[in-house]
Write the structure tokens for this entry.
Amino acid sequence: MAFGLRSRRRRGPLPYEETTADAYGTHVAETFTVAEPRPDTLVLSGRCPRCTAAIDVPVVSGVFRARGPRFGRLRQGAPDSAEPRVELMMCTCDEDHPDRPEGRYGCGAYWTVRVPTAPR
């Protein structure tokens, strides 16, 4: 079964596997909460649709860089647009997942989801 939330009973930790399913994005869109801790930054919070670990996924709509002696902001795209945008996301948990490659994190699940323009 590809979609992890339906089967919460497992023996041992879920092995790392880079995988996706349409249901992952659907689950995230329906269950994750959205907070805006600062302008141009949203944090989507909920349970990974594959391994069920609690995760927070930051989504930044601006790019920042230093400009001379003062800090300035370089904006990319149209973050003030009323249209939601599609973002690629992945599990960012620090749970134990056997076979996870060195230097990686999460269970390997990834998905796309429409990011709202405002917190809910």
Q: What stands out?
A: Confidence is low (pLDDT under 50) at residues 68-79.
